[in-house]
Amino acid sequence: MVHDDPPRHGASHARAGERAGSGKPPISGPWWSKLGPGLITGAADDDPSGIATYSQAGAQYGYAVGWTVLVTFPLMVGIQLASARIGRITGKGLTETFSRLCPRWLVVALVALLVVANVINLGADLSAMGDAMHLALGGPAGAYVVAMALLSLLLQIWLPYERYVMLLKWLTLTLLAYVGVGFAAKADWTLALRSLVLPSMRWDREYATTVVAILGTTISPYLFFWQANQESEEIRRIDADRPLAVAPEQAAAQFRRLRTDTLVGMGFSNAIAFFMIVATAAALHAHGVRDIETTAQAATALKPVAGEFAFALFAAGIVGTGFLALPVLAGSAAYAVATLAGVRRGLDRPPRSARSFYAILSGAMLIGLAVSLSGFNPMKALYWSAVVNAVISVPIMATVMIAASHPKIVGELRLPTVWRVLGWLATAAMAAATVAMLVLQTSGSA
Description:
This protein has helices spanning 13-22, 37-45, 48-61, 67-90, 94-101, 104-137, 141-158, 161-171, 177-184, 189-197, 205-218, 221-237, 251-283, 295-300, 303-341, 355-372, 378-403, 407-410, 417-445. By secondary structure, it is mostly helical. The longest helix has 39 residues, at 303-341.
């Protein structure tokens, strides 16, 4: 049985009943005040894993892979909006939603895949952050890794939810560092924009793997779970809000907010990805640097062309985006596992009332820390973790799309046709790209 006790700032059961029957509209304000789960989710997508993938793609193929961000934008919006709507309509996360549609063994398998991918990503992100701090300040990278992992964990556990969400919103600004890197690298913007709208395609194993890696780091399972869970937490946090299943009068306003939040968040994510590709294409590919083995190499290779300023921005961006992504990775895994275990969960709950949830969260962070300290090459691990994400996304995405229009889950508030088409196109694109990669890998090793 899933426990749904009052959150850290929650009301009594009597007050909840008053809310349900009041019909009070959700809190209004300027459009930027409505940005939240979608913006944070989109920004967290450009984590050190994304930086590694886009850097390797730009270094290896130059501007020729820029078209991928234009293609992934509408696909991201479709699948993320489906996830957000599920959370807002039901007041529940994806794991609980999946449990209403699928046999338990399948839900357990999907959650297990999510947790494995997230822990690998956590470890790789921490390693990249440690390398960036070592480059900027000197000293042992491992010490920075431990300090940053513990700091992130303590903030998640002890900082009140509203302040933590505000901190995550401010951290999204660190991504603007890559806009600066793009301009500092003196890119050929005519060629960059031409490559954005006129794709340059190649049919070989390495190129297909790169495209799958970009898809995998852009359309990642942890993002679906996080945005749905944060929508459900916003319902508990804001007195006027109720799940749309019991307050359909709020649907029109909330769906407008969801569209704005998701479009802005995913647009921001893809714009930053484009600047990362452009920066490394100009600073690395154009000067013969085609294979990036470590984050240190990616950052230091910028110095001769773009100077110390670009180097500093690149390193700062890795640390800032890492602090943004760590709670999303650990939190989405903790929400999923806690839901399966039927225990209280939520970052808006104090530690004493959700001990199991915070224990799971801590376990994910600490295992990720252990992975980081195990000595693997962080840049390669980040790149291949994106490929792993692409493979495991397909069954999760298919389940999200079914749930977003299933009467048992959303009633009459099914996903509109345009977003349903985009969500299924995203699922099909991920499946096709994964199959292509596997075929090419097999043929290449034959």
